[in-house]
Amino acid sequence: MKKSILMITPENKEINRFRKRQINNFIQITMPYLAAFIDESKYEITLIDEYNQKIPFEKDFDLVVITVNTANAPHCYNISKKFRNKGSKVAFGGPHATLLPYEAQEHCDVLIIGEAEENWPVFLEEFYNGNYKREYKCLNTPSLEGIPIPRRDLIKRRWQVVD
Fold first, then answer.
1. Contact at 8 Å (CB) between 9 and 50?
2. What is the pTM of this model?
C-alpha cells in the first residue's frame, strides 16, 4: 500500500513579496531533487512550492517533509504543527535543521541533518516499513556519482502566480 508524502518548499509572506520583485527568481531545486530518490511504488508524491502554491492543509498525508531555512523557521514550525495535529509525521531538513537541530527537533518527528543523499533513501525505506529513527545525520561529503535527475515534472504552476 502506498503512503502519501507532501514535500514543501516553504516561503513566508515577507520573503514571497521580496522574491516576486526579483528578475532572477530561480526555482529552488531541493525538493524536486529529493523527490527523485522516492520509490513511487511505495509513495504518492505531492510537491508544493509555496512561492506560487498554497499548502493543502485540508488533505491528509502520512509524511510531510519541509526544508527549513532560518528565515522561514517560525513559518515551518507553524506548518508542522498543523499537520502533526492532524496525525501526519513531519520531517525537517535543510540548513536550519542542520545548524540548530535541538531547536528544530521540538517541532518535528524526524530530523535529516547534513546532506541528504545517503540518509534520505534510508529514511524513506525505514519510514515506509514503520521503523524509522528520530534523527538521520550525515557528517561526511557524499559522492554525487549516480545521483538521480531532479523531478522537475512535479513542479506545478511555477510561472503562474497564485494569490
1. yes
2. 0.85
